[in-house]
Design goal:
With 471 residues, the chain is an alpha/beta fold. It has helices spanning 2-17, 71-76, 94-109, 111-114, 128-139, 165-172, 179-184, 216-225, 251-264, 281-284, 291-294, 296-304, 332-339, 356-362, 366-378, 408-426, 454-468; strands spanning 21-28, 36-42, 49-53, 80-85, 121-126, 148-152, 199-204, 230-235, 273-279, 308-314, 344-348, 385-390, 429-432. Helix 3 packs across helix 5, helix 12 (296-304) packs across helix 17 and helix 15 (366-378) packs across helix 16 (408-426).
Length: 471
């Protein structure tokens, strides 16, 4: 009788432990199951998913406090949660990196079955797991890169003089004194605009195991400098490894702050139309503080809403001309844009082609190079709708006649007619941005007379959104 009662109590405790969970699935990521993902499906999924990477100094895993203890938190919010058992590197960094990337891929590949949006899959990591999470966020290819990151007291630096030595030894092994590798996997030095996802970083100020001054704070600073939305919460005390422990003095505050951050993250539906914004510094958001929140593609995302997934593939200074001084189609961003397999493409190039060094030498190639870009996009499985943009007006004070000076007369009288001719040939719509921005307006344009302000970016986004929505 006592055994029966004990069994009932244990069963009830288990039911209470995962109160918001509809089902648990374990997916082996390696044939032997050494790497696996325990997936907890919520009763009422909202489309979001998180892969959790427990810490343990790359020598073991804290599977409860930094793993399964978080099931209720996420499932009760409607978030699908997967606890990653990743293999220890033992000096081979590719081992856990592969496991983490495969976990993200698994979530996305199973999106339709598990009620997940493939554009809303995040990663969470604690301590060394935070290093693995931030490594995935900064190093993974596009299809395995998370859409957001949650980092608790993360190891960021691989310089053993200023970080957790055990994590460095485990991750880099005998290569821990290789300066190139130390830099390559000190993730504050690997943050990339438009590529590294938004983050929330949480830690205690008195953490002595992983010093925040040389780990979490430099990572936040790098995100902020790159214009990537990031939040940082510092608790006065709590040391290292508090995870989900209710004994942590600021547990309730931490839970509330993380909940609020997650609720404020933009949602993107599973069937969202993918929009690729291709362009130069104006698309890139040059000179716009917090470009990944204030630049025109970010504004476009906000205006179009959760039915669209907008990505920024702008690269400053680039040309449409393949023989220009800095050709766009030779950049990784072009490969990434095609790999995104967009449903809609907005092309805004031509401003830098107007420089005499480019136009005087290669103007006859402009139409052909634009046609090449269009042909490569048309060949994608998604068969995207393509919009061409007339470049905004330029009012550069940097000197007439300079070989490297943008020439608005060339834009108006040569480049725009060339765009129109190619658009007509391919039956494409042209978005005319010339009247949208006043180059002499301090509200619309930065002091250089070339790049729009945040307010100007908002105007560009509005013009593009009107066309995409069919207005």
């Amino acid at each position: 009788m006592k055994k029966t009662l004990l069994l009932i109590v244990l069963m009830m405790a288990g039911m209470q432990l995962y109160a918001g969970t509809a089902r648990k699935i374990t997916v082996n990521l390696t044939p032997d199951g050494a790497a696996n993902l325990q997936v907890f499906l919520p009763e009422h999924p909202n489309g979001r998913a998180v892969v959790g990477c427990p810490g343990g100094g790359y020598s073991h895993l804290s599977m409860q406090n930094e793993g399964t203890d978080w099931v209720n938190f996420f499932n009760n919010m409607g978030i699908t949660y997967g606890v990653l058992t990743y293999r220890m590197p033992k000096g081979d960094r590719t081992v856990p990196m592969t496991d983490a990337q495969n976990a993200i891929r698994t979530m996305r590949d199973s999106a339709a079955v598990w009620g997940i949006s493939p554009y809303d899959v995040g990663i969470m990591g604690f301590s060394a797991g935070g290093h693995l999470a931030s490594t995935t966020a900064t190093h993974a290819p596009q299809e395995a890169r998370p859409d957001f990151q949650i980092l608790f007291y993360p190891v960021i630096s691989m310089d053993e003089r200023v970080t957790h030595k055990g994590s460095v030894l485990g991750f880099l092994g005998d290569n821990r004194n290789d300066e190139k590798l130390v830099k390559a996997f000190s993730n504050d030095k690997q943050v990339k605009k438009h590529s590294t996802p938004p983050a929330i970083i949480l830690f205690a100020g008195n953490d002595r195991a992983v010093p925040p001054l040389t780990n979490a704070i430099p990572y936040y600073t790098a995100l902020r400098k790159a214009g990537i939305p990031a939040a940082m919460h510092v608790y006065p005390e709590g040391g290292h490894g508090f995870g989900f422990r209710t004994s942590f003095a600021y547990h309730d505050l931490m839970v509330a702050e993380l909940t609020d951050w997650l609720k404020r993250l933009p949602e993107v539906k599973a069937d969202a139309k993918r929009v690729a914004c291709i362009g130069n510094s104006i698309t890139d958001g040059y000179g716009v503080d917090m470009a990944d929140a204030e630049g025109y593609p970010a504004r476009l995302q906000s205006m179009l809403g959760s039915g669209y997934c907008v990505r920024n593939y702008g690269v400053s200074g680039r040309t449409m001309l393949n023989h220009g001084d800095r050709p766009y189609m030779k950049e990784q961003a072009w490969a990434d844009a095609k790999a995104f397999c967009p449903d809609i493409v907005v092309i805004k190039l031509g401003t830098n082609d107007s420089k005499p060094v480019n136009w005087n030498n290669y103007s006859k190639e402009f139409s052909g190079d634009l046609q090449q870009m269009i042909d490569e996009l048309k060949a994608l499985p998604s068969k995207p709708i393509i919009y061409l943009c007339n470049p905004i007006k330029a009012d550069s004070p940097r000197g007439e006649g300079s070989e490297k000076s943008i020439n608005d007369s060339t834009i108006a009288n040569a480049i725009i007619p060339a765009i129109a001719k190619v658009a007509k040939k391919n039956k494409l719509n042209v978005i005319d941005l010339r009247p949208v921005i006043d180059p002499t307006s301090k509200n619309d344009m930065q002091r250089d007379g070339i790049h729009p302000t945040s307010a100007g970016c908002k105007k560009i986004a509005a013009a593009v959104a009107e066309v995409i929505k069919g207005k």
